[in-house]
Amino acid sequence: MQAPPVPLRLGTRRSTLAMSQSQLIADEITRRTGRAVELVEITTYGDTSREALAQIGGTGVFVNALREALLDGKIDLAVHSLKDLPTAPPEGLALAAVPPREDPRDALVARDGLGLAALVEECRAAGRPARVGTGSPRRMAQLAAWARDRGAPLELVPIRGNVDTRIGFVTSGELDGVILATAGLRRIGRHTEATELLDPDLLLPAPGQGALALECAAGNGELRARLGELDDPATRAAVTAERALLAALEAGCSAPVGALAVPAPSSAEDTAPDAVSDDSNDSPARGNVSELRLRAVVGTVDGGSQVQLSATGSTADAAALGRSLAAELLARGAAGLMGERVL
Ligand SMILES: NCc1[nH]cc(CCC(=O)O)c1CC(=O)O
Fold first, then answer.
1. Which residues surround ligand 1 with Cβ inside 6 Å?
2. What pLDDT, in 10s, does the model give residues 107-142?
3. Measured in angstroms, how far is the CA atom of residue 19 from the centroid of ligand 1?
4. Which residues, other chains included, contact 52 with Cβ-Cβ below 8 Å and sequence gap of 6+?
5. Which parts of this chain are annotated as the region Disordered (predicted)?
6. For ligand 1, atom 1: residue with the closest CA
7. Ligand 1 mean position, distance from CA 303 (Å)
8. So what's the ipTM on this one?
9. Selected catalytic residue, list 101, 131, 138, 186
10. Burial class (CB in 10 A: 0-12, 13-18, 19+), 2
11. 150 burial class (0-12, 13-18, 19+ CB within 10 angstroms)?
């Protein structure tokens, strides 16, 4: 089909991260289709509010303005961080593509090149707790649980702000370290500043972390088809499982819920839900394309209690896998743990 000569309008937030990931996708669309793409800046409530994100309350504070611009026809497509997207499908819009996922892990950016364990031990020797910044209830819950388990002195300091601001707390010496998504660091070219990429056994990422979502008007069939070329079925299946779990827990993007789906190890024999085991084959390259292993955790922000489970299921019905693991978590008291979050 002949492409119209006008450039596609890609709506984006103004932050460095949003601009970087929008430009990456714009370049990819142009490379594949020859179609020019122009970035259109849209300001969102999440960009202007100085409130803690969790206090704004709703999910999707970053995405609503972009969605309105799509529905109003002011832009043709939007690129979102998938982990910021509410799980409810929006009226009139389509999730046209989920491109290949970046590294889903969280990263520690700490002073003096230190990893988490070394940082905590060094501070302990100095007779004080390590001060690590994160405003995410999910990260707080799991890091606090990790610290409790090993009797490690760790003080979690609630912070927010863009990547520059957050890394700035470490550079200034105000904090010993901060936690950020590795994917975000990579997309703005600052991944070399990470001092440890945290193993999902220690810190399960947010559902959808590291993945992008390309959204356009549901009625724009031609654009949907073109954008669909950027879709990665393996990533889409993984994030479908993670988000189905989040939806079934009735939790939002600021809830203390971690989840990660990866292709199941090829040797896996059992397909039934099981308790969490300590094998950690997270390499998609070695995985079985027909099965997914989904791990999830729900915990209190103080790290006092958490439920962590995993299950393996068919990639073809990733949503069912997410829903069944959510049911298992709820049966083990997950709802009560989420309700206890103190913000
Ligand atoms: N909560 C904000 C947000 N949304 C997406 C990313 C990073 C990129 C991604 O996960 O795809 C970040 C920053 C962070 O958590 O450090």
1. 81, 83-84, 180-181, 183-184, 209-210
2. 999 999 999 999 999 999 999 999 999 999 999 999
3. 13
4. 135, 158, 160, 343
5. 263-289
6. 84
7. 22
8. 0.95
9. 138
10. exposed
11. exposed
Asked about 139 being catalytic, the answer comes back as: yes
User: Is 224 labeled as catalytic in the residue annotation?
Assistant: no
CA 100–ligand 1 middle distance (angstroms): 16
Residues 6+ apart with CB under 8 A from 132: 108, 110, 116, 119, 143, 154, 155, 156, 157, 175, 176, 177, 178, 179
Smallest CA separation from ligand 1 atom 11, residue:
210
The whole-model pTM stands at: 0.89
Instruction: Specify whether 123 is catalytic.
Output: no
Report the b/e string of 205-239 with b at 16+ CB within 10 A: bbbbbbbbbbbbbbebeebbebbeebeeebbbbbb
Q: Kindly tell me if the per-residue pLDDT of 339 is higher than 70.
A: no
Per-chain mean pLDDT for the chain: 88
Residue 248's nearest CA partner among 326, 188, 176, 159 is 326
The yes-or-no answer on residue 83 being catalytic is yes
Pairing state between β 287-299 and 306-314: antiparallel
**Which atom belonging to ligand 1 lies closest to the Cα atom of 253?**
1
How far apart CA 2 and CA 219 sit, in angstroms, is 19
What is the rounded CA–CA span in Å between residue 6 and residue 223?
13
Q: Out of 139, 293, 295, 323, which one is annotated catalytic?
A: 139
pLDDT digits (tens, 9 = 90+) for 213-272: 999 999 999 999 999 999 999 999 999 999 999 999 987 666 799 999 999 987 545 444
Question: Three-state SS for 304?
Answer: coil
Q: What is the distance in A from the centroid of ligand 1 to the CA of 271?
A: 31
